[in-house]
Protein 1
Amino acid sequence: MLVDNYLSKGVNQMKLTTIGIDLAKSVFQLHGVDVHGKTVLKKQLKRNQMATFFANLMPCLIGMEACGSAHYWARKLQTLGHTVKLMAPQFVKPYVKTNKHDVADAEAICEAVLRPNMRFVPIKETEQQAVLALHRARQGMVKARTAQANQIRGLLSEFGLIVPQGITYLHQRVPVLLEEAKDELPGVFRELVHRLLTHLKELDRQVGELEVQIQLWHRTNATSRKLEAIPGIGPLTASALAASIGNAKNFANGRQLAAWLGLVPKQHSSGGKTNLQGISKRGDPYLRTLLIHGARAVILRAERNLKEDSWLRRLIGRCHKNVAAVALANKTARIVWALLLKDREFRSDYAAA
């Protein structure tokens, strides 16, 4: 019915070759052009109208920003025979010609998806999204657990009760402190602290259960187990990398993967003068944090165990530990790309021919 109304306005759907979709929660703005780039479609659809409209449309190229629900709609439209490409919003923004609104955004997306040098975001499968959802939930609970621990420590300090840093000390010392100062503390405050401790233990239990689920998936996934063999990568980092990267062929080389993670220098050059600054911090900060923390663990272990002529030993000798950690994380990202692309196992004694 929707396509019939669309055709009744004198627009031939055979001319429609490219569509840009501005996604939202309930209202979707479409902008379509023909093979010559002439606008032949400007339409707004509700969520329940999307599937019907594209099911009756001839296969065409569809561009969308990689935002909320983009991967779902990409998979949905691909099953209907369309070619779908996702783009990072910051790469679409330069094509917005006027003030920001849905119509202008859809037109900019349609323009950007046709650029030959545009960078596209790989479409994630449902299993990848499910594993990453576990990681995001765990990350949120860890943040809430830290905030709860800091709140308990701050409230106790107002009554002169000091607890050392670390969540373990809260479980061990807070009940003892409350018992020793029960004559000086109001009963309502002691009851509040016990309630907050119970909440902290519940958050700790939830984090542990999510980590168990992540490790179970890690054991059943060959790619994740392969990445775990790299020094500085454990089950959490391996599963997050395997679910986020997907097909390594999406990156031309290892440096592109490192740049995608924000582990390469940010460049601000002009007039033929090269100026390299700190890391760009682009991409997913969660993956970057895991890799850098893993690199710090490798450096801590390597300060005493590595040979004097090793690359990491020489790097630590001439650079700050934080700089060395980022450099090692960059190298780890390149190793990850090589293993995924060539389907090989990690060898610590490997040397290039």
Protein 2
Amino acid sequence: MSSTILFRTEAEIARAKVAQSRPIVVETGAGPISLLVTDDLTSLEALWEELQQSVPCTTNQTYAWARAWARHGLGPLGREPVIAVGRGTDGTPLFLWAFEAAPKFGMKVLSWLGQDHANYAMGLFAPKAAAELGPDDIVSLLHAMAREADAALCVLRSQPFAWDGVANPFAALPHQPSPSAGYAVTLGDFEALFERRFGKRSRSNFERKERKLGEIGPLTFGWAETRDEKLALMDTFFAQKSRQFAAMGVGEIFDAHARAFYRELALLEGDNPSRLRLGYLKIGDTVAATFSGAVCHNRLGVALSSIGEGEMQKQSPGAVLLRRQIEEACRDGLAFYDIGVGTARHKEQWCDVTQALFDSFVAFKPQGYGLTLPLAAIARGKRAIKSNPKLWALARRVRRSLFGEVPASKDESA
């Protein structure tokens, strides 16, 4: 394993930053593009926030979200940000790609910044650039960026083919379908939506479950508002999710770094599109379920959800909370309630939008193929299992029997 990649001296780090501070020119079919590759997020704040307001994106591509992940999830894990900014000859910003670099097997591997905690991963493209940059241009720009970053390969997961009606230029890269898709609800008149997605008996069932929960104790639906409320609800979420993961035989993904990352997002203020809004259903003082997400470009995207334990699970508190939040999102005039990536019963019930996603495994150096080929094969295997209901059910049962502590809850609504 190469120590020059894993353990760099301060002088080497300084030289790398100087090298990355000078843009290079890449010739494309849309004209020459000035490409800057840097690890300095702070210097890009104004440009980044300007782009995120005017181009298709999700919360996962916003500046404060990236800053929080860079602060809590990169350095402690031995990773570093790699941000590529492209400008036209007149200085107009054309795109911003936020990557992170991690050392693996003596090579530098690029992925989307924070992609393990993102539902959807992509770059920010000005509409003109998204329309005019062709497949060869994207390949040339990505390879030029990789040379500047000294990267051997990239592993780019969960990328939408299009977002808000704009095609994703990265679909021009070699790719394969992601193991899972994204799911969203088109909002509008809630009563019409509710009747369209659920029969009379199912609608009555929602009312019955909510009534039964109310018999246990007074119900409160809401959003954490104060700092203390937010921190307390985050702690409750982490505890509930840990129990759920243990029951499912899934390893803990919310380590200390991830928890600090989400706490920072929850404590953001105002209408910041990176702000994590913490929603809950309480029975008395007990948190029965949580659904939390952020609002970006008229879309509420769910990032976290959990359910409590005990007898109340029989009445599906997660499903009851989800219905209330979708109703509220309709009243607020939002366009979509996005429940995120991965199949689940409650998504099939509610969602009328299925977002196909793709993964790209691209080698920039010969040794990079030693990782891209097996990683692509593993992803194809996961998709084959998840696409087959019988195989997926079997895989979940095996995982629970091998690693789970208790039987998983039948309530799949959180």
